[in-house]
Predict the structure of Abasic site processing protein.
Amino acid sequence: MCGRFALYSAYPKFSTKAGVPNVEEAPTPRFNVPPGTWITAIRQVSGDEPPRMDELWWGYKPKWAKGKASQPINARVETVATSGYFKSAFQKHRCLVPADGWYEWDKSTTPKQPHFICREDREPIFFAGIYTEREDGSLGCAIITEPARGSAQDVHDRMPLILDDESLEPWLDPDLTDREILRNVVHHIDAKLITHWPVSAKVNRPSGAGDESLINPA
């Protein structure tokens, strides 16, 4: 799964790769981003416009889902294209969630040991996501997950779907709606690029977003 991540690199490191024009500012560093908060995402509204950065609510609940309908933060890659809850967004409302890494908890230890997982070269990463209009008119998103690969398997059986650079443009293209074509042109990063290390249990608390020490090896 993906239930906590970090975003602290300057936005141009992401925007240039994703084709977002005229982005110069740096984000407020967030070393512990929890669900149920506003997060930075990249989406493309139409094929005639370039991608843009927006703030989306991390929690996916379509406006037609009333009452106590679920508000998932993740969607499984195995079913996202066919699930009645997600398939419309997968077809036309795909997004990227930029990050520097994410946290998972090793269940084989007592208490569970948190790890920070990222690229070995510390380059920024892009989680594949989907978004929808919520009942209040705002946009909410979910991060797509896949079976863990590479060293991420040491910590958890799931991980966010991280796209390689060549996949960013087709993933964002709202005119690309054919599922089989998407499968052929969208790929995850090489599993050999993934690394991780144990971090302080301070990350268990969804606070201290500006605490850079959260990603330090424990």
